[in-house]
Amino acid sequence: MGLLLLGLAAAWALLSTPEAPQAGAAGAAYVLLAVGLVAGFLLGTHDPATPGLLVLAGALVVLMLAWPQPVSGEAMTAPLGYMNANAALVLCAAAGAVVATSGRPMAWRGAAAGISLAAAVACATQDAQAAALAAVLLAGWSVTRHLGPTVLWAVVAAVLLLVPVLLTVAWAAGLLPRPRLLVSALSEERFDLWSEAWDLLLREPVTGIGPGRFSEESPTGADPDLAWAHSYVLQTGAELGFVGLGLLALLVGWASFALGRQAVLLGILLLPASVDYVLHFGGVLLALSMVVGGALSAPRVERQAPGAPP
User: Which residue has the higher pLDDT, 103 or 202?
Assistant: First the structure.
């Protein structure tokens, strides 16, 4: 089902407004998600720890090859060309460590939590607040995910997935006043971008304005760093319309259902993308989808260590 939804989303990106400047890139992004998802699942079927460890190792290698630029403090910096995208890659690396310890003894999970906290510190020092918060949540979840009923974690996952989206949409539509604390932390321009994306969605509700046209239509988008809506939901809505949004909702819903009690992982990984454009980087897309693919395979082949919790 997931691959079918990704295929439909790719087709819609390509065919809804084929003349759009980035229609091909938008379709390719969904294909890349499918590749990462399948790779993570197949590798995880062989050994549940493999996809997570590969993402962790791959991210570390990429970051070290670009060292010390990733910690330079510059907004546009290697390896991905954007500081917050680098932070999202660090978050995916920590998530890879967490997925690799599924079904392992608590000592292993504690080590994964330590990696997540280190990732939180690294992101915080680079002023990537959303990724830092997500990494802290990841650390807490990594050592508590075996506790409590599945329905509890389903509620937590729903909160993580829905609340950031509903709040950004409410602010974009003018249904809620802009909180001063968040405006100071995220910038006035980011709230303006959300509002502009919402207006563009209402202008072209079915097909959207087309991939790559947000920066052309947005009054705030003249700055290269502000050429995106800084929200994966509002960006999708503005450029692919309600049809694209519906496919995205179905895809996230399917992944959440398939992950079961591990759906919290998806909510944590998508948290930075609710307030930034980190999903427009292929490296982040591939790492995220491989981690999720590995998490999807883990319950089927989990090899319990002696004394490990279920």
Answer: 202
> Where is average pLDDT lowest: 15-19, 34-38, 110-114, 221-225?
221-225
116: closest CA among 88, 94, 98, 93? 94
| Per-residue model confidence (pLDDT) at position 103 | 80
Mean per-residue pLDDT over the chain, rounded: 93
The sign of the dihedral angle between the CA atoms of 276, 100, 94, 58 is negative
CA-CA distance, 168 to 40, in Å (whole number)?
31
For residue 214, give the 3-state DSSP assignment: helix
Q: Show Cβ contacts of residue 69 under 8 Å, excluding neighbours closer than 6 positions.
A: 77, 78, 79
Of 289, 310, 279, which Cα lies nearest the Cα of 41? 289
172 vs 223: CA distance, rounded Å: 20
- Give the residue among 217, 224, 220, 205 at the shortest CA–CA distance from 21: 217
What is the DSSP secondary structure assignment for residue 179, as one 8-state letter? Answer: P
d(CA 172, CA 149): 35
Is residue 191 very low, low, confident or very high in pLDDT (cuts 50, 70, 90)?
Answer: very high
At 282, list the tokens: 């292929």
Least confident of 17-31, 90-104, 186-200, 295-309: 295-309
